[in-house]
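Dear colleague,

Thank you for sharing your sequence with our group. We've completed the structure prediction you requested, and as agreed, I am returning the results in plain text so they can be pasted directly into your records. Please verify that the sequence below matches your submission; if there's any discrepancy, let me know and we will rerun it promptly.
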Amino acid sequence: MKAASRAAAAAAVALLAIGACELGLRGRLGGDPGRRERLFLDETRYLHEESRAPFFRGTVKGGSEFWTTARPRANPQEFPAAKEKGELRVVVAGESVAQRLGSGDLERAFSNFFPERRARVVNCGMGTYDAYRTMLSVSESKPYAPDLFVVLAGNNDGARPETLSYPAYRVNLFLRSFWLWRLPQDWLAARFRRADPRAVESRFEERLRETVRAAKRMSVPIVLCTLPVNLRDYPPLTERAMRHFIREEFAQAVELDYRDRCPPSRNELIRRVAAEEGAALADLEKVFARLERGTCPGWDMFEDGVHFRTRMYPIVTRTIAAAARIGPRSASDFHAVELAIKPWPPLDFSWKPGPELDAVLLAGIADALQAGLQEPPILLERAVAKFMLVERVAPGMLSRRLSDRDAIARDLAANPSTRSLSAEVSHGWGSIERHSAAALKRLNAPRVPKRRPERR
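Please find the predicted structure tokens below.
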């Protein structure tokens, strides 16, 4: 009994000492170090739990079998299990750039280049998916009877782990709410978990080749797409890259930045894999460069760093359909695709107030909120750039929209990619004001008036 009492007393003393240290650290460094990470718990579940669910589930209607969307956040779709006579079933896989490819636009493009077939597009694109998850999407698609795969991947392949145990992540996330656990873990991560860019690119290439080979095993042709990005008007995240961006060395800035955009070198890798593995190539990067007539793509073609503006989709879908019609060729043979998609469709690059500009503003607000969650808070140039675009196109719009916090919170909550930030609007309002003030100052516009803090 005495030994047990002494052990209990020692444990109590140790716990009191640990508690005192933790309270001291919280007083010095802040009260809840895990708050920011908990905001994005849904994103981790989305990538590491929900991505394991089948994309479609079989249903029966009127005696016929159908495939119906089963995976959370996927585009809602329903299509018959049995193909119609003459049907060309095109399965699109990849990230959000793939998910945003409207089935109607792509089906019309394929109908133009395959007039003898009736195209049906099955969209398996998912926001934030990397090449690994794209490969899994293609590999599971055999039951859907594909005749062609179209793959758009390359913007989301950074240092993030491909897989993790979600229950273990939850436990670690709880422990990271304590400074005594978080500080040594962060120190070890900074010391030993440095991402090697060559390893990141090697992993991307391996997954891309596995994707093509999965299609070959099904005897289904595949089209790989290069991914153009906003080079000219979308500031990088790292200081090293920003130095090149300021000097208008835009391609080099993307190469040196955090891998949240497809750099030119990765597009060269996609071309090489397509040539070596016998895949067709839709060289969207070269098409966008040709449309720019020698300048770098910017806000005229993109609504952020990677997502095309609505008016770009006709040329995107025509390029993909032309590549599928031509089939595998040399990766340098852009001339054939260029001839296939001529005449170039008329494009109006101007911006006007409307849903497209509203989306840019909402993305800027989300960026500003995330900048305020950093330790310490930062000024994110991407948020400033988006606010400046909004104010240039629609003077006064920034001030009007930022006068209604409740509406902003509702808009954030309605978008799956920003839902986790909707509860942070009041807490992070100071960061939104800092970014809007910086944008208006650079444009020499009147500043957004500050509101008094809301009482809780």
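Summary note from our side: Confidence is low (pLDDT under 50) at residues 452-456.

Kind regards,
the structure core
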